[in-house]
Amino acid sequence: MATSQLKTSSVVENRTSKVAGREGFKPAHRSTSTACSVGAVGPYPRMDFVHLGLRRNRGWPWPEDSWGLDSMFGETGWCHSCGTPLQEQSGSLTLQAGGQSPVHGAWIPNWRFDAICLEKSIADRVSAEFRLDLRPVAWRRKVIGAAMQIVTPTVGPAWFDPDQLRDAAIARHGSAGAECSECHTWRWLPLAFEQLPPVRSDASWERCDILASPEWFGDGARSFREILVRRGLAELIAAASPKDFKIREIS
Q1: Structural domain boundaries of the chain?
Q2: pLDDT of residue 47
Q3: Which of 112, 148, 194, 229 has a C-alpha 20 to 30 A away from that of 97?
Q4: pLDDT in the model for residue 102
Q5: Side-chain half-sphere exposure of 140, counting CA atoms within 13 A
Q6: In terms of Cα–Cα distance, which of 149, 146, 225 is closest to 191?
Q7: Distance CA 177, CA 163 (A)
Q8: Rounded distance, CA 60 to CA 64, Å?
Q9: Is the omega angle on the peptide bond into residue 63 within 30 degrees of 0, that is, cis?
């Protein structure tokens, strides 16, 4: 692992802008994470990243009335209108033990779709091989196993061409998305991975082994980013939990 680390974005607040009469987004704020190294960046091997597709969710975050956001970002650290985080994660993801089997493998809980959780033994292995920001998972009332959450940094300029993304969202939903009236974050309406436009890579990606899109997606109180994972890391996670994850190539 690199001894020198660059803090890259963990939360990007997106606000609407008008480009040639079309709705787009522009990053208004970039916060930081320690998951990416500073070293020199060579030619970027975009295809070394893959999409880690979700087969199922496991577990329920706490507190339920904040979908787990209070424990991760604090009561004032997320938008109570759209559910988008407004700052870096400052606390642990807290999961409820009730109805969940002992910790095993890797998984993503309900509601927090960009929070990958790892059994401690798997977390120890991947942290020795990859550049990751890991935070212990907390448990409500009863501890059912040691686990770590990967805190995924937001990296790079826009991954998707906004015109293509707008067209894809309208074709699927009849609308591109909306700006939150409270925090002014622009969220694109959710699309299946195969419905998204081609990913536009950036040289900064080479410093990271997992990264999240600057674009936010969602509707109602659900907000999430798209996640891409270095192929070797994705293969380890998918092999540990084939019922939870599947690997998809990116276009």
Answers
A1: 5-38+46-248
A2: 64
A3: 229
A4: 86
A5: 16
A6: 225
A7: 12
A8: 8
A9: yes
